[in-house]
Design goal:
20 helices
């Protein structure tokens, strides 16, 4: 699909509406709608394009996409009789965050444009509401938890995803989803807040992120910052090295003092993963990269196909993902359980152990035997995994090149933020199947794509203008 350029009232208004709708739905209690939000955005853009007669060759690309899906299904079924179609179509739903990005139109704006200022104001309003609700939730539990922020106290910080989380504590995945969206918002509006010296909102946002006690989120955001600073050469500056070291020490100290049991639990998981190799994640990884290739080399090289192994689509199709493992909530559209024999042979029993022995394994994300990097490796195959890694790091290198050619602070700031968010999502893939949780990552991917296309166009236009002057 190609959408022609058109002015603010046409293009920018529809993109703005789509982005705000994305954040509102992503921070809502309606999980099924949140899974569908990329398709809702896609339909909104299509409808707007048709209404304004600005879509070129859309139907041709749509037919090609459908044809490729059919050919892919037939090829996988012929190559692997264990291929399950319902799982594959579920994976289109769960991975839709990445598919829709190709259809987000290009919008040109800068730090003085109405579009940018309006977007930042709306995101700031959403952030303030979520932070206020988050503090109400944590303080209710704080007073009922013996004046402690430790253990599961921080898990009740869920914002509007579950406003009354303190009334009926439901640990689930709401807390990480809330944090992901909050992190995307604060990163993308931070330049405006810093310029206007709105440091109080930044401070309270950082505080709520710390109190939410999701240590794997903190790890991902730390490595995202570290990777970007190293990539762009910012960390070579001695001043930034001192700031980084002091920040790490301060963060560890705050976590150890305010959440000693959580900090201790993290060290336990760290020991299981890196020293004892007893973590379910490590076991599933070693099983998949050592035992599976030995017995099914072709599958390891070329993949089982999306939705066939440890991806969220596969877990949903198994019929044991929603609700408790022993008493699951059945979804009407999945029918009978669809479990790929390879998944059943290598991972299913381990998954059942972790879900039915919570007292032993713990209910943490760290104890789950699946994560996006592993799912992509086995389902897309080693060839597909390497290719996708190549695409990601090639794109990262392109962002670095744009940063070196950037001509103003707006471009430099947002290229850094784009890279931080991209690495953040990348590192989340080592902890859970985050890449399939549209409610957690689609809003961030939307912002990354929107700002990237804008800055890329600005810098390329500047290069063309410079070339014409020579």
């Amino acid at each position: 699909m190609e959408i022609q350029s058109y002015n603010y009232t046409k293009r920018k208004s529809i993109v703005f509406d789509a982005l705000i709708i994305t954040f509102i739905i992503s921070l809502s209690p309606f999980k099924l709608i949140a899974y569908l939000v990329p398709f809702l955005v896609f339909l909104l853009l299509i409808w707007d394009g048709i209404r304004k007669k600005s879509i070129v060759k859309f139907y041709r690309y749509f037919y090609i996409f459908i044809l490729l899906i059919i050919l892919y299904c037939v090829n996988n079924y012929l190559a692997n009789s264990k291929f399950l179609f319902i799982n594959f179509f579920l994976s289109i739903l769960t991975y839709s965050s990445f598919i829709v990005l190709f259809f987000i139109p290009q919008v040109i704006f800068d730090n003085c444009s109405i579009f940018y200022l309006k977007l930042c104001n709306w995101l700031k309003a959403i952030l303030i509401i979520e932070i206020l609700i988050g503090f109400i939730q944590i303080f209710f539990v704080f007073f009922n938890n013996g004046f402690s922020f430790d253990l599961a106290a921080g898990d009740v910080i869920q914002g509007t995803i579950n406003p009354f989380s303190f009334w009926h504590i439901e640990l689930g995945f709401n807390n990480p989803i809330f944090l992901c969206n909050i992190i995307f918002i604060i990163l993308f509006i931070s330049p405006v807040l810093i310029d206007k010296k709105k440091y109080v909102l930044i401070l309270f946002t950082l505080l709520i992120i710390l109190l939410a006690s999701s240590i794997h989120i903190l790890i991902c955001i730390f490595f995202a910052f570290f990777s970007v600073f190293l990539l762009l050469g910012i960390i070579k500056n001695f001043k930034y090295i001192i700031y980084t070291v002091v920040s790490i020490i301060l963060l560890v100290y705050i976590l150890a003092m305010t959440q000693p049991d959580n900090f201790s639990l993290f060290t336990t998981y760290f020991t299981q993963i890196f020293l004892e190799n007893t973590s379910p994640k490590v076991i599933s990884l070693f099983t998949s990269i050592l035992q599976l290739p030995y017995e099914h080399l072709n599958i390891f090289i070329f993949g089982l196909g999306p939705g066939q192994y440890t991806s969220r689509a596969s877990l949903i199709a198994s019929g044991h993902f929603f609700g408790s493992f022993e008493n699951p909530i059945k979804l009407p559209f999945t029918g009978d359980a669809q479990i790929n024999p390879i998944f059943s042979e290598y991972i299913y029993d381990l998954w059942e152990k972790t879900e039915t022995n919570v007292d032993f394994y713990g209910g943490s994300i760290m104890a789950k035997p699946f994560f996006s990097q592993l799912s992509v490796l086995v389902e897309f195959g080693f060839v597909g995994f390497v290719f996708l890694q190549y695409l990601f790091f090639s794109w990262v290198n392109k962002i670095r090149s744009l940063y070196l050619k950037s001509i103003n602070s707006f471009q430099k700031r947002y290229l850094i933020i784009i890279l931080i968010c991209a690495f953040y999502i990348y590192f989340l893939g080592f902890f859970e199947n985050y890449w399939e949780v549209t409610q957690a990552i689609f809003s961030g991917l939307f912002l990354i794509t929107l700002f990237y296309k804008n800055i890329n166009k600005q810098i390329n236009d500047a290069d063309i203008a410079d070339t014409q002057l020579l």
